[in-house]
Amino acid sequence: MESPVATYVSAVRSFSALVRTVPENRWDGPGLGEWDLRALIGHTSRSLTTVLTYLDSPAGTEDIASPEQYYVYVRELMSVLGSDEVLERGRRAGADLGADPVASVDTLAAAVIERLGSGEDQLIRVIGGSGIRLHSYLPTRTFELAVHGLDIAAAAEVSYTPPDDVLVESTLLAARTAVAFGDGATVLRALTGRISLPEGYSVV
């Protein structure tokens, strides 16, 4: 199995390539929920900018021990912050991509890949101030790039499939997160054709 760093880099390169295929007339059109496509792509690009930021924010303790525990932590945090903050951050990130968003995403992709280097498994401080190992955090960013990459492709009506290593890691993380939230048996039964998942069900 690829390392979390290698898989994340694969996801970053795939996302950057996807953005280059988005038609110019789609950027201000529908994206996902209340986001237009620019805001959706901006939100997705935060899976690059947060890594750049957090690599310069060392932590002293490991408060979050796994990628799935990160999502448990974030759900609790969002219950306090609210969804409006996430929506607004996405819009701001989309605006920050500027007049040439394709070039901006390419620049961010190159910067985060260079900054990661070999990807030493350091302790970093994430949203809310908690500490997590880099190799536990990166799979959550790979997951976001994969899921929102598919969202972007659907909104832009372009063909896209994330790389196999990205799909494998993201699907496994989705399953582990479902277990962490107590939904493992339900998801397993759905994946094996026994039942259908409840309408609108999401592991994150």
On the 0-100 scale, what is the average pLDDT? 95
Class, according to the CATH hierarchy? Mainly Alpha
Class based on secondary structure composition and strand pairing: mainly alpha
| CATH third-level topology | Four Helix Bundle (Hemerythrin (Met), subunit A)
Fraction of residues in helix: 55-70%
The total tally of domains equals: 1
Low-confidence stretches: none
Task: Tell me what the structure shows.
- The structure is a single chain.
- The protein has 204 residues and is mainly alpha-helical.
- It has a single domain, classed as Four Helix Bundle (Hemerythrin (Met), subunit A) (Up-down Bundle), CATH 1.20.120.
- 62% of the residues lie in helices and 5% in strands.
- The protein has eight helices and four strands, in the order H-E-E-H-H-H-H-E-E-H-H-H.
- A two-stranded antiparallel ribbon has the order 1-2.
- Strand 1 and strand 2 form a beta hairpin.
- Helix 6 crosses helix 7 and helix 7 crosses helix 8.
- The radius of gyration is 17 Å and the shape is globular.
- The model has no long low-confidence stretch (mean pLDDT 95).
